[in-house]
TrEMBL record:
CDD domains: SCP-x_thiolase. Residues 242-390 form the Thiolase C-terminal domain. This is Acetyl-CoA acetyltransferase. It comes from Streptomyces albidochromogenes. The lineage of its organism: Bacteria, Bacillati, Actinomycetota, Actinomycetes, Kitasatosporales. SUPFAM superfamilies: Thiolase-like.
Length: 390
């Protein structure tokens, strides 16, 4: 009888950005390649160790097409398409595969020229999710993705008294964090009044309640524990993860004030053996201010309905009680499309102490020990949460 071998520990040993922000002279494939090369260089490992590959959002047969462009021939692949949460979900899959011995080193890569394509006229319409299947019953009414998030925000305001000023605080603090990030697209400070007085996009969201549109890419290399001795830097361990999906149609969403992070977060924390109160910093998907607020509730950093009060008084700043989106997030740093992988890159950099002026510290002057990255896809349709530790 065969004796099952113990699961291997999994670490992130490489994390890097491509050029980000305004990148007019590169293709999405080039940004994938640039980010991949930089992540491998960051790890100190040779590309020959990579036997797993994860990518989504580019090419007809992603990740086959992107892997071919990068000159890789992986024996383990993933291209799970659940929107912005795809990267946390694929990181969870990769960690499971490595732990089980199905792969040794998995490279996750993303790149997009969403901003440049629009400026150059290569992309002339917004993303369509189609009108077949369950969506056919809602598409004729014309509500857009931003409108769906806006409806959910209004429901939270109705149920719990959350205010526009509290939602605006999320944008203000994200911009303050971006000020210390030289790679951030927007770094000038904004006030609550600036947010509230901006042009209306979808009630109650004004322009600064919404993420920026940028170009950019990033990559993360995850490996089995036996590779760590040969890496250039100290590992960041994957301690636990969780995934969840809930709905595609708004009519099937049980409660507009609860996201699937309520499930993925609980699972990730349980599997990591930690509590929300143990976490030193959080990287949260923030296409809109409401996403940050409700995800904080659903991850357990505050009770349901208390998100508005929680985000006040600078709590989300990099020197606040719970630093959130320490690079400036999608609201100020970058948002090329599916931002989930950027959350993992920033969490790794913070845990390594590589964030420069934007570095989060602990009360005793040390480096943070634990971080959580939580991605969201669709209109709160999916969630993936990963807990990382030094």
């Amino acid at each position: 009888m065969l004796t099952p071998r113990s699961p291997r520990k999994v670490a992130v040993v490489g994390a890097a950005l491509s050029d980000c922000g305004r990148v007019d002279e590169a293709t999405p494939y080039a940004l994938h390649a640039q980010a991949a090369r930089r992540a491998l260089a960051d790890s100190g490992l040779d590309r020959s160790v990579v036997d797993g590959f994860a990518s989504a959002g580019l090419g007809t047969l992603a990740p086959v097409e992107v892997a071919e462009y990068l000159g890789l021939r992986p024996t383990w692949v993933d291209s799970t398409g659940v929107g912005g949460a795809a990267w946390e979900v694929m990181a969870a899959h990769a960690a499971d595969a490595i732990a089980a011995g199905h792969a040794n080193a998995v490279l996750l890569v993303y790149g997009s020229t969403a901003r440049a394509d629009i400026k150059a006229g290569r992309r002339t319409s917004n993303l369509s999710f189609g009108g077949r299947g369950p969506l056919q019953f809602e598409v004729p009414y014309g509500h857009t993705l931003v409108a769906k998030y806006a409806m959910a925000a209004r429901r939270h305001m109705h149920e719990y008294g959350t205010t526009l000023e509290q939602l605006a605080e999320v944008a203000v603090q994200a911009r303050a964090n971006a000020a210390a990030n030289p790679d951030a697209m927007f770094r000038d400070p904004v006030t609550v009044d600036d947010v509230l007085s901006g042009p209306l996009i979808a009630d109650p969201f004004t322009k600064l309640h919404c993420c920026v549109r940028s170009d950019g890419g990033c990559a993360v290399l995850m490996v089995a524990q036996e590779y760590v001795a040969d890496t250039a830097k100290a590992p960041v361990w994957v301690l636990g993860s969780g995934t969840a999906v809930s709905h595609t149609t708004m009519s099937e969403w049980d409660d507009f004030t609860v996201s699937p992070a309520a499930v993925s977060g609980r699972l990730a924390f349980e599997r990591a053996g930690v509590r929300p109160s143990d976490i030193d910093l959080a990287e949260i998907y923030d296409a809109f201010t409401y996403m940050t607020l409700v995800t904080l509730e659903d991850l357990g950093f505050c009770a349901k309905g208390e998100g508005g009060a929680f985000v006040e008084k600078g709590r989300l700043l990099r020197d606040g009680a719970l630093p959130v989106n320490t690079d400036g997030g999608g609201l100020s740093a970058c948002h090329p499309g599916m931002r989930g992988l950027f959350l993992l890159v920033e969490a790794v950099r913070q845990l390594r102490g590589e964030a420069g002026e934007g570095q989060v510290g602990t009360p005793d002057g040390g480096l943070p020990e634990l971080a959580v990255a939580s991605g969201t896809g669709g209109w709160f349709c999916s969630s993936g949460t990963v807990v990382l530790g030094r």
